[in-house]
């Protein structure tokens, strides 16, 4: 469902070092990255800040074009077939909303129905279903700006699923959520994956998400794939550690920062 | 395309209606600014009878045609030159994950109706000018043609201004020189400017084709600067050429898009 072959993405940073002198530096945000995600899988994508997670997500969704290599998502090349791909995948960014800030949630959904050309009957059925599963009912008429973070997040997930995508890409969907909302969100995602067979790729810094949801984990560091395998394989990399958080911390530390490279991505 | 645009425009109109006081103040503000524009022309003609060799109704004709073209282009596409703000906030990423052209979403973003007031205002000036001019039908056909071409030219300039911001994220003001600058420039007969500038806006940034050249035809005038006669029919050509450049620039920009940090 997702196929990434030897993908690289470089950024050229220009910095003024003197009055006329300019320094050019090439930063490899992602290099020689290859992985596949099969249909129906639930895969966690881990990595420290600045490791290349977001760059990868942006390449998978067609926001950024890769500098080298080949990507296929749901049978399409994301950068070339961006709008066609948008109808086949759902994307949720935990840190920013895709909803219309000043409109009631319901109106945002209606607008998404038009943009994605979902037919009225299918839309109604799907919205009712999601409303029930995510208990959206009571705030469908509330403007998005007045929603709490947890409510807004549920709204965003719904928005990403109204067109029934085959692949769901989640970039830190549980960031900032309280324990109860987090548990509800995880329960929903697990069900979605199990019952509808939706393929899910999730980035997170919350190890609970990884333990409770993912069949498989990929860990990226300094733009390269540093680990790939099941949760048990992940544990086996540091058998002396008891919590998964410590195991991952070790893996992050192992591929310790090649200094400048990491901070350079935050520009 | 048109349907998606209309739908999103309606959405933004409803969204801005959520803040009625702000909406009212913005409308008043834009009315006042445009009234000053017209006042300036009136002040000039209270001291002289011609401007750059053109009488009041003729200047009003130039003002009106450029004004209508610019106001329509600004209402429909004006937001495109605010691309850098959307890139920095990450909002542009969101547009890229939706199944609609990014240019269209960018153009319609924060669509506001008070810009419609500007169109009406310019149209009134144009109407008054035509009442005082008595243009024969054999030349009047050019008026709708030049307005449409003007819209396309200004829209293309907005698009190019937006496209440059893929590269120059920190310099949106450079773009304003061409968009709003171009609008002010075309409000007066080009004869009031130096001939080098006229050549530049004829052959480099084709602003002279928004209203100046076709207006020479409508008004039945010889070119005071002696440029070839056929140029007055060349507006559609200039519009298509500039639109092509704009489209290529926008595409090249999207390909080079780098997004932001997180």
UniProtKB/TrEMBL annotation, chain A:
Q: Name one Pfam family in it.
A: ABC_tran
SUPFAM superfamilies the UniProt entry points to: P-loop containing nucleoside triphosphate hydrolases
Q: Which GO terms describe its molecular function?
A: ATP binding; ATP hydrolysis activity
Give GO terms for biological process.
Answer: response to antibiotic
Where would you find this protein in the cell? Cell membrane
Q: Which GO terms describe its cellular component?
A: plasma membrane
Tell me the ranges covered by the ABC transporter domain, including all copies. Answer: 2-247
What is the name of this protein? ABC transporter
UniProtKB/TrEMBL annotation, chain B:
Residues that span the membrane, as ranges = 21-45, 60-80, 141-169, 230-250
UniProt keyword annotations, A-Z: Membrane, Transmembrane, Transmembrane helix
Which InterPro entries would you find in this protein's record?
ABC-2_transporter-like
Q: Kindly provide the name given to this protein in its UniProt entry.
A: Transporter
Species in which this protein is naturally found: Spongiactinospora gelatinilytica
